[in-house]
């Protein structure tokens, strides 16, 4: 049975301030938790409902297991309908960006993406198309936000996220910089080469002026109909699909 202090501690991790303070984030649902078990992430504790214990895989000895009742899961879960499992996972240290690791491949760069669902969907999409890294600006939504983690459906366990000051990083970078802009060259006519950084901007404001200055190859997804704009996660999927096509 969970104590009041345990419940209070886990609930505090719903907030970014306390995730950062304690270095832990929440993963819910057995499918997503299994992805993190198989990854390089370090799992602190798994809380489970006894009725679903048989769904757990064989676990390393360093993972704590804690049985809870449905009523307790309701109190600590970030979901309206808890899924029977909740894990506390250690937040990895932000790795320094090494330009050599970005050579001979394409990498998504997110400038100020704010919606947790969009961020999670982009990470899941990148994973689907085989992109292993995503670079985010500091003002992008936190990837360990519970809604973001949930939207990745476990893909966060396989995609490395870097956070960095984009203007400074792009200024020192020698890899081609592509940017999703309305007045760019058609995505289907662009000469991509074999490497590049592909920048996608904020849902409402697009790419920031400081970052636009660093783009040397503006690219657009041609509009056929009358819609004013595309959702950033949809745009990311189109870019990923096209980049995989031209590379293959």
TrEMBL record:
One of its GO terms (biological process) is methylation. The keyword Transferase applies. InterPro entries: Alpha/beta_knot_MTases (IPR029028), MRM3-like_sub_bind (IPR053888), Ribosomal_eL30-like_sf (IPR029064), rRNA_Methyltransferase (IPR051259), SpoU_MeTrfase (IPR001537), SpoU_subst-bd (IPR013123), tRNA_m1G_MTases_N (IPR029026). One of its GO terms (molecular function) is methyltransferase activity. Pfam families: MRM3-like_sub_bind, SpoU_methylase. Residues 26-95 form the RNA 2-O ribose methyltransferase substrate binding domain. Keywords: Methyltransferase, Transferase. The keyword tRNA-binding does not apply. Gene3D superfamilies: 3.30.1330.30, 3.40.1280.10. Coiled coil: none annotated. Belongs to the class IV-like SAM-binding methyltransferase superfamily. RNA methyltransferase TrmH family. This is TrmH family RNA methyltransferase. It comes from Pedobacter vanadiisoli.
